[in-house]
Amino acid sequence: QVQFVESGGGLVQPGGSLRLSCSASGSIFGIKSMGWYRQAPGKQRELVAVIHFSGKTTHYTDSVKDRFTISRENAKNTVTLQMNSLKPEDTALYYCNLQNTLGSYYWGQGTQVTVSS
């Protein structure tokens, strides 16, 4: 079983910044990648950003490129998402995701991000 500690969500004005952090522990068996997904009300869950733990390959959805940056700290099984120039359309519940080297996926409980004036 894998446990997550997610932090950093909240309410911010348009143009502001937030930093999400996610730490994983438990029976991980090695991390292939970690990332963040989000789900807004009435919409499907979508990938925001992912980073591979061997090397530093990253992938971002087009709408967040040049605004969000994902980084990792292997020793702490931690991934961080720096979100700048936030827009109202970034409002969603953000979920941490982990794929281990056995091909299994695990999800955090989610942290709310609200961008509003």
Labels describing this entry:
mainly beta; 11 strands; 117 residues; 7-stranded mixed sheet
Description:
The protein is mainly beta. It is built from no helices and 11 strands. It has strands at 2-7, 10-12, 18-26, 31-39, 46-52, 58-60, 68-73, 78-83, 92-100, 105-107, 111-115. The model has no long low-confidence stretch (mean pLDDT 95).
What's the short version?
This protein has 117 residues and is mostly beta strands. Helices cover 0% and strands 56% of the residues.
Note the gap between the termini.
40 Å
The best one-word shape is globular
Low-confidence stretches: none
Q: What's the alpha carbon Rg, rounded to whole Å?
A: 14 Å
Structural class: mainly beta
**What's the tally of helices?**
0
What summary fits the major beta sheet? 7 strands, mixed
Quick one: how many beta strands? 11
